[in-house]
Specification:
Distance between the termini: 44 Å
Strand order of the largest sheet: 4-5-6-9-8-7
Number of strands: 10
Radius of gyration: 22 Å
Structural class: alpha+beta
Helix content: 25-40%
Number of helices: 8
Shape: elongated
Strand content: 25-35%
Amino acid sequence: MNPTPQTLVERLLAALDSDGSQPLYQQLQRALREAIESQFLLADDALPSERQLAADLGVSRITVRKAIDGLAEEGLLVSRQGSGNFVSSRIDKNFAKLTSFSEDMRSRGRTPRTEWLKRTVGTVSPEEALKLALSPGSTVYRFHRLRFADNAPMALEYATVIASALPSLETVQDSLYDALEATGHRPVRALQRLRALLLNDEQAKLLQAQPGDAGLLVERLGYLRDGRAVELSQSFYRGDTYDFIAELSAS
């Protein structure tokens, strides 16, 4: 629930020190960032107007504007023409960390949900056989799902899993990785490829977007500890809801 303007102002006032060494706009920026990261402010929560914040906090509008601009550059706030400033609903996904969609959403205070499109048993295709190192005719399970966060569609997932990794199709409920972990077949490493695309009519309809909108495709090949491939997946994301990040080093 969106906190009242008064409770937000009280929290921000407690963090500001006019005699401190740090500029006021940086103090305000830090206080707002902590309010977002601690989930005091949630996705799509509206901030009071800049004029109102300046008056309530006893600072200049320039101070408020600089703080908000900095958080907008970080992707934490978004300005909507004629409506004001809101907490961004975009999701940061660490591209270097092997986690499931459900784990990602829960770690951000969002509630994951799955809508099943199809789940089937089949014979491995030539492309799947090559990538999963399976013999022709091997059995695989296919899981096609629409993934939600707080009832907003976030991703289309198409996963193929070697049949020996799961007792049955019905083993998978909300989280594929939970089911694989229960049988000792959760991937411990993966190769991932990210590329941009334009959503087609079907993808756009399911993701509540427009055909031709920007999208992201993540292809993942997951491996077990012994080096065997266990999962091949394609996940389609709305381009306006996800940011993929990775930490790089020179060594």
